[in-house]
Design a protein that fits this description.
The complex is a heterodimer of chains A (389) and B (329). Chain A is of the alpha+beta class. Chain A has 14 helices and five strands. Classes of the chains: A alpha+beta (389), B mainly alpha (329).
């Protein structure tokens, strides 16, 4: 890194005022800014991308605090509460802000044998902040029983809160969704990191050395890209032993997804290597006697790190969709593991969905997450090369 | 030009080889060999496989020999049109797959066709009327198409059809035509059912193609030759359609190679949701029942089908784009 010129002024403390001085200071600021700063500024202008970034951060906060945000044990089933519709939250009680839900009574319809639920407006159940619930470790460390919201006497069957209703086994959909978010988003993250390693190593090798290695790797990528992936995933996933634990299946699914997802990343990395190989600063680094590793990791990689981050973000939605699709088909994660795909499995049947449409709610976070990652990735990609246009 | 096609064909052969190895791996992955599971399957249904029969099967598939010998024998059998027996159905795999494969082709091609039919005019419109209401609408629909996984889209449409119109929009045939022999009426019935699955499958591709077409055409429209054409007094339609669209069409054609595998992939899951009689539901069933010969064959055939489609699109591209023709002579 070159030493910064002494002229560098902090624009906020510029002594001269007036539009001209501001413009000059602005220019000065751009001249001395580091690449990361330029990238950040450019990214900042892309409002949709920034908003998406906030959404993505929100999602990962849910991943961290899933058990805090959930108020019911996600695997606690109760036949008496099977397929209960979402309970509406009433914010005001007699003009005062006191959020509550109505107690719900379930009974079997004598004609159709369907369970029907009736809200009782006379019996109000107040919603409490930081209510007591099942025990868990906050952030995996602090043992506690407090949850963000909840109702008193959670064990009393009459006093329940189901923000998004319950599934066939009477499990709370909201709490399951929180836990599902944790698994679905981490599986994407781990999968993408594995793809990243493969992509960077193979793409870098391909781009830096060229020649036969390049040709072979490029052909392999082309072959992989022309194979329909879902049947292949299904085949591989179905071959996983039935007696594996949740964690083993989780890892295996991640590996399967990432094995076929690295090609785009490799393509980006190779392209950057090819573009940079003949750049002046790389040539001069080589001429002053930098070793190959040093040339690559100290001089080349930092200059296209932003591209890699953008490509990685763009690769995430595909990972999330693949996991959801596999689990939806019953070939990915299996219950008792909870992921978005596992939750959507209950929505496979149209008749079931028509009777209890809230079973389709897990599709909403999938769509929002995919869109957010796409917009964020687009913004990052545009910002990745702050010197262009 | 021939050299180019030759290179693509060579790559296609390599791809088919890679797919065959992967399919073979899928067949081999479950514990136990084919014959032991075959015997177990037969025993569970009450029939007995004699030692002699078992031995014959072992020799036929080269079990017990090294992996590459088994692979070679398997390929040889396939080349002769023998894909093995489906354990679950106890019939040859080819018989089980039957017309399902051709229906998969029909659905995929329809989706691809629809992608073009929709993306071309919408893309042109979006570029020519940049920042108009229609352009924004197309962009919005495009983003939805990219973001919503197609099987979820299928689910939502199915639900809407069910609740709003009380109609079942799934399937490829009406009840009375389900098992009927092929006739003109059946083809017409198929055509009537085709648009919805094709739309669901093609939407993501359409969204992408619209964006590509729009970007390419916008680049072209800013070039001086367009101004010249306009200055010479050509009608606006002619100015746009005659040159810029043709140039912009190019990358459009070259992306089929990537769109097709995507559509075929998607058709598997969408078929399951919509209950289409394609190979999708069959694949899932065979995988769950560990009927690996059937599953492996389906994966293989889907792969080969995609490769052939891609090869055709490559040849089309050469035909459309003179630059590729000249570059490689």
């Amino acid at each position: 890194m070159a030493t910064k010129p002494d002229l560098a002024l902090d624009p906020t403390s510029a002594p001269v005022h007036g539009p001209r001085a501001v413009a000059a200071a602005e220019e000065q600021r751009i001249f001395v800014a580091s690449q990361w700063q330029l990238t950040w500024w450019r990214f900042h202008k892309h409002r949709v991308a920034v908003a998406s970034g906030i959404v993505v951060i929100g999602f990962y906060l849910i991943v961290l605090g899933a058990d805090f945000l959930a108020y019911a044990d996600p695997n606690a089933s109760e036949a008496q509460r099977s397929l209960m519709p979402p309970q509406a939250v009433h914010l005001f009680d007699g003009g005062r802000f006191r959020p509550h839900v109505y107690a719900v009574k379930g009974a079997r319809d004598p004609l159709t044998f369907k369970r029907v639920y009736q809200a009782d407006p006379n019996q109000k159940i107040p919603i409490r902040l930081f209510a007591e619930g099942f025990e868990y470790r906050f952030l995996g460390v602090v043992p506690t029983t407090r949850h963000l919201i909840g109702v008193d006497g959670g064990l009393d069957a009459g006093k329940t809160i189901f923000l998004l209703g319950t599934d066939l086994q009477g499990r709370d959909l909201w709490s399951r969704l929180m836990y599902g978010t944790r698994i679905s988003l981490t599986i994407g993250l781990i999968g993408v990191s594995m793809s990243l390693v493969l992509g960077v190593v193979l793409g870098g090798f391909s781009g830096f050395y060229g020649g036969v290695a390049d040709t072979v790797i490029q052909r392999v990528i082309e072959i992989l890209r022309s194979i329909p992936t879902i049947p292949l995933w299904m085949g591989l996933a179905a071959a996983l032993p039935r007696d594996w634990s949740i964690l083993q299946i989780y890892l295996a699914i991640t590996i399967i997804i990432s094995l076929l997802g690295w090609t785009e990343l490799a393509r980006v990395v190779r392209g950057r290597f090819l573009a940079l190989r003949e750049e002046d600063f790389v040539v001069s680094a080589r001429l002053v006697g930098c070793g190959q590793m040093r040339t690559i990791f100290v001089h080349m990689v930092p200059s296209f790190m932003s591209h890699i981050i953008a490509a990685t973000t763009l690769a995430l939605p595909a990972m999330i969709i693949s996991e959801t699709a596999l689990s939806f088909l019953g070939l990915g994660l299996r219950p008792p593991a909870i992921s978005w795909g596992v939750l959507l499995q209950q929505a496979q049947n149209v008749q079931a969905v028509a009777l209890s449409p809230w079973l389709m709610i897990p599709a909403v976070p999938v769509i929002i997450a995919v869109m957010a990652f796409n917009f964020l990735g687009d913004g990052l990609r545009d910002a990745a090369d702050p010197y262009g246009r | 030009m021939l050299a180019y096609i030759g290179r693509r064909a060579l790559l296609a052969i390599f791809t088919v080889w890679a797919i065959s190895v992967l399919s073979f791996a899928i067949i081999q992955l479950p514990p136990g060999d084919y014959v032991t599971s075959y015997i177990a399957q037969m025993a569970s249904t009450g029939s007995v496989v004699t030692e002699q029969e078992a031995e014959n099967l072992r020799i036929q598939y080269g079990l017990g020999q090294p992996m590459y010998v088994q692979y070679y024998k398997w390929v040889k059998l396939i080349a002769g049109g023998n894909f093995g027996m489906s354990m679950e159905w106890r019939r040859p795999v080819t018989e089980v797959i039957g017309e399902r494969l051709s229906l998969t082709v029909v659905v995929s091609v329809a989706a691809l066709f629809l992608t073009w039919v929709l993306a071309l005019p919408i893309g042109i419109y979006s570029a020519v009327r940049q920042y108009s209401l229609g352009d924004y609408a197309a962009t919005f629909v495009g983003f939805i198409g990219l973001a919503v996984p197609n099987f979820l889209l299928a689910l939502v449409l199915l639900y809407l059809g069910f609740t709003l119109f009380n109609a079942h929009i799934g399937g490829l045939f009406s009840l009375e035509f389900q098992d009927a022999p092929w006739s003109l009426a059946r083809v017409w019935d198929l055509l009537k059912h085709l648009p919805i699955p094709a739309l669901i499958l093609g939407l993501a591709g359409t969204a992408q193609q619209i964006r590509i077409m729009r970007a390419n055409l916008l680049d072209e429209l800013r070039k001086p030759y367009v101004v010249t054409a306009r200055a010479k007094g050509l009608t606006e339609t002619r100015v746009i359609v005659k040159y810029p669209v043709r140039v912009a069409l190019n990358p459009f054609a070259s992306t089929i190679g990537y769109t097709l595998p995507y559509i075929v992939s998607g058709s598997i899951i969408v078929s399951l949701v919509l209950g289409l009689p394609t190979v999708g539901p069959l694949l899932l069933k065979s995988l769950i029942a560990q009927d690996m010969f059937l599953a492996g064959t389906i994966v293989l055939l889907l792969g080969v089908m995609t490769v052939i489609g891609t090869l055709i699109s490559d040849i089309l591209l050469v035909w459309i784009d003179p630059r590729i023709r000249l570059e490689n002579t």
